[in-house]
Sequence to fold (191 residues):
Amino acid sequence: MKTATLDPREKTQSREEHDDKKEQERRQQKEVEEKNQQQDEDKKSSEESKTIDALKILLGSSYVLLVKTHGFHWNVTGEMFQPLHALFEEQYNDLFEAVDTIAEQIRALQEFAPGTIKQFTEKSLIKDAKDIPDAKDMIKELLQDHETLSGAYRKAISIAQEEGDEVTADLFIARCTVHEKTAWMLRSFVA
Fold:
């Protein structure tokens, strides 16, 4: 009985096919790993943009509130002129520092901060004053605005913490505290 022997060329061809198959499997595995890595990076990038979006909204809102508060400072009249004039000045000075801090945090995260009135108003949760209200209505309007910002900062804190951005979360916590205290002070004028 004759045993079949493999031609050396067939052995080489079989080995090459095996090597090709292994190489193809390695390439496919590498493609899967690269795809997973890209998805992780895309997810992280998407998450980062939520914090940056929150920063931009809060920057625009703070800037609009700064301008409104400054205008109320100039135009307040009546029996409460002196205490409100001083209070509004304190508030717009705080907001001026805040917008700089918020904008710099956006830049620290490698994004460009909004820098035009149009960009601020488009992003703002705060509406511009339509006219010059009386002192009591100024207080009510600013109270509502600070409560709006306080709520927005609370949501932003959660976003930043979920994304692991504790530095920005700390900024949000500090600003939320200021807006809550300011709302309390304004509330005491209309109680």
User: Anything to note?
Assistant: Residues 8-75 form the longest helix (68 residues). The chain has a mean pLDDT of 88. The chain is about 80% helix and 0% strand. The radius of gyration is 30 Å.
